[in-house]
Design a protein that fits this description.
The structure is a homotetramer.
Chain A: E1 12-30, E2 37-49, H1 52-57, H2 66-79, H3 85-99, E3 103-120, E4 123-142, E5 149-161, E6 187-197, H4 204-220, H5 227-241, E7 245-254, E8 257-259, E9 273-276, E10 281-290
Antiparallel strand pairs in A: 1-2, 2-3, 3-4, 4-5, 5-6, 6-7, 7-10, 8-9
Helix pairs in contact in A: 2-3, 4-5
Chain lengths: ~290, ~290, ~290, ~290
């Protein structure tokens, strides 16, 4: 062992912690009829509890190996996972609380990769699929393995409108404001959303589909004076359509599409030739809640 | 200037080379009617010619600045780019051969990001769009700015079938073969394709749409004994549907979906619970050509 | 405007929220002597306050444009940013609280890209630099623009040891445990850490350098019975070396290096030929705090 | 099987093709002394030959399974791989030509992840390592399994100089040139290089180290009138230092560091506050060869 400068050690203790397995890539295929159904999840499971002995003394006797966690995820996917990923998450967390001597709670997070059926002559094919871009996400956590807090979400929903959007009437900083106002611009954003539920049973799959529809439709139904206002209206639409949802959070970057300066070359540009600027971007985050 | 060991320099010369601008992110919006049309390209332009003076003597007098290349891409997008990205590429390369004293040829490469219309009540919206996953690609090159070689392509088309695929009867290596044979497996691949054209005029947009359809449909119409065979059949389908295409190349990784070993836990697994293994993957590349 | 099904709207309100600019890529060069100094930051600024009017009514009159935020970041980088990124963050947040009518607080997050001097004849060069892999991170937040909570961190520190590590004596799950025990393995992890400070002034640059050193040295000074124990010992080492730090958090994936099964081919493998498995990985998170 | 429109099939044939295994992640650890040595490679192997039967008729009988390729890579890493990755590549390709009935040639490509020893009290540690940013690459190919063409390379070498660089005297396009000239700027590039060898035996490891040094030192030893000229001088330096190398190719993006316009805010900016623009970037590619 290497010699290092002798160090005086101070007294420390373990704070909040968890451990588990991440990036478990799982596909479950339902072959009950010839029209197959598939679900593909990337799963992370984290366990919480009293793991002080392992951390501070190197005593592993109360630790479930993360390799066991992986085996369990695949095993319970066979025995359970009969409906939504959120319900599967509850099964997983409950299992580890039951089997881990020192495990008192935990969480399961997932990203679901979405597949559509391949279209042949206008029909979705029985067993051929093509991957879609947006992703479904979720997190199930529990302090006791019995009651659960569920959050569902969506990622990588990239939407854009070419008109009915502006940015004007904002606060002017004497020194640092240089941007001109406009009532006509291109607006684009890469929506990340997550939402929480009211008490009671929820059909998580059905709710997700409704939210996905609302987020897209809201883009079309108003003049947007700011990304902040559109964020709010998306929240309002979701809460109106989905009584199961208690509140919803958005992260919405403003993917700037800037009119390229063609006047220098004697050319007009009426929002026709745009520079899609990758950075820096305005970034809006916020919850919309029931009043 | 820093002192370094004195070095004896040998005689060198410039070989094949090009320079230009990459990652020019451009959106062109057609606002001629209230039903807007958008196209989003990431463009790279490279110029070839006699650039020895700049390289070997630091004499820039014959170099077009790459910033000028950027301005030109946006400027010509306004004046031209009336049909496909491939035709726009020809306009660009021809322009630089004309304006660059020492530019004799060049190429334009693009990745087109595809957008669908947002659906509202079953109708595509006039000015709201949602990004799709597959990407359209292309490359136009010319040695003289007059005649062009065009290659078109597709990337990130991720397809999967849950049955009608196997892998058996292959060569056994005495020592290193451990994989069992199967006539029932999940097959998935992330298709990259590119194709070349016969002489004559081409409607590049129409051809692309036909290829995109053929690649998906072929997945559904045969039992696949190997990814190699499916690659070949995809090529056959494309060449049959598109007389404009002379040959087509594929890169198709075998995205392995492995049956997780649940027998260890007393559970059956009839290709139901799969591990989606990110690596290592079989990788097939090949051209399919007219006989 | 598109017609959609008429929807009954429910009453909603804005919850916790912030907005600002992200991915502002800034380099500050100190040219005061011929030995230049550079710092490169990717900065995000978020502002908090009463932004209800903008969200719920589309009234922008109290909003600072995010473009103004960008200008301000570059402007204040010139006038301020005399020492660490953390102190620069305080300057930025204080500024926006002062200039934004409705801004009551906010945060600044940064990722610092680290550059070493190019070595020539054993000396670091005056003005030539080469990028390093690990990244320095930080977040400064304030509820009032006057008092600040500072968190500093490190990312992408990828370390590995080829011996003096094991994993044994862990809890056996009757059904799902299949992993054999070992007292000799390869251990590797991609360290993400962040830490908080005690009251009082801090030399953030000096502390970061000490943490960076401790995290690497700790890897070498003990037999590791688990990644959890190494996490704890890293925390102990940092808290011992840096009295300014109150507590430190780690995220440490277990980058599995698995002995490839060569026995099937009649070959021995004494931890010599390893498969570097990208997934799934054990993932440990935890705080180490002063007792 | 799904019914699709009946399609008339045209006659096609297989063109140039290869198949094999990609992203095989391998670490070899030399434990012969207590000072361990490690090498980490990501390997791809492709085989060429007459694979028509598999492609056109679904006859796999002459195909080596890619799973066998993976096993072989790990197996031969144990038995061979005694010196450089390039020599290991030759062993692999020769093996597949020998064992694959229809394999006549092939290639092996690698990316080597580089690790330094962790420093403790100024000494590199015996068995603890920390990952570095630049990557070593290479490709070995053969048409017959006996004679080989070797290309070696480097990737992700990100270098920057804060002075001794300019861009002036370039060709002005009447319409599209807007960039001002300068004799003082920041120059940065993310070097990708690859080189070929003269006949004769080569110590690939030693050559790589020399190239790595030359590329960095050249940055420091001249005023750069253009990235093209620096590319050329890097080539000259490498060819002067390494008689084994016949020619070298570079891809060098111009990572623009633009002086942010602070004049609008009444602030001077003498190349002190820079915007690190991620796109679009000038991109230079070229070979430097022996005259």
């Amino acid at each position: 062992m290497t010699q290092t400068e002798s160090k005086t050690k101070v007294n420390v203790k373990l704070g909040e912690n968890n451990y588990g397995k991440a990036e478990v890539n799982l596909m479950k295929i339902n072959r009950d009829s010839k029209r197959h159904e598939i679900r593909e999840l990337q799963v992370r499971v984290g366990m919480t509890g009293d793991f002080d002995a392992a951390h501070s003394r190197g005593d592993n006797s109360e630790l479930i190996a993360t390799d066991t966690v992986r085996n369990t995820i695949y095993g319970l996917a066979k025995e359970g996972f009969g409906s939504s990923p959120e319900e599967f998450g509850k099964e997983l967390v409950a299992h580890f609380v039951k089997t881990g001597a020192k495990v008192t709670g935990g969480f399961m997070e997932f990203t679901e990769h979405l597949w559509d059926r391949v279209q042949v002559n206008g029909q979705g094919h029985d067993h051929s699929f093509v991957r879609q871009m947006p992703k479904r996400t979720g997190r199930v956590e529990s302090a006791d393995g019995k009651s659960f807090k569920v959050t569902s979400g969506i990622e990588e929903l990239y939407v854009l409108k070419t008109t009915e959007s502006g940015w004007e009437g904002y606060l002017l900083d004497e020194r640092f404001t240089t941007l001109p106002e406009t009532h006509e611009r291109v607006m684009a954003t890469f929506v990340t959303a997550k939402w929480e539920y009211n008490e009671g049973s929820v059909d998580y799959d059905a709710v997700w589909t409704k939210v996905f529809k609302q987020l897209q439709e809201t883009l079309t139904d108003h003049y947007s004076p700011s990304l902040q206002n559109t964020l709010y209206l998306m929240g309002e639409a979701v809460l109106s359509a989905c009584p199961e949802i208690s509140r919803i959070w958005f992260r919405m970057p403003n993917k700037h599409h800037l009119q390229y300066n063609l006047g220098r070359f004697g050319l007009e540009n009426n929002l026709e030739i745009m520079h899609v600027d990758p950075e820096p971007y305005g970034l809006m985050e916020g919850w919309v809640e029931r009043a």
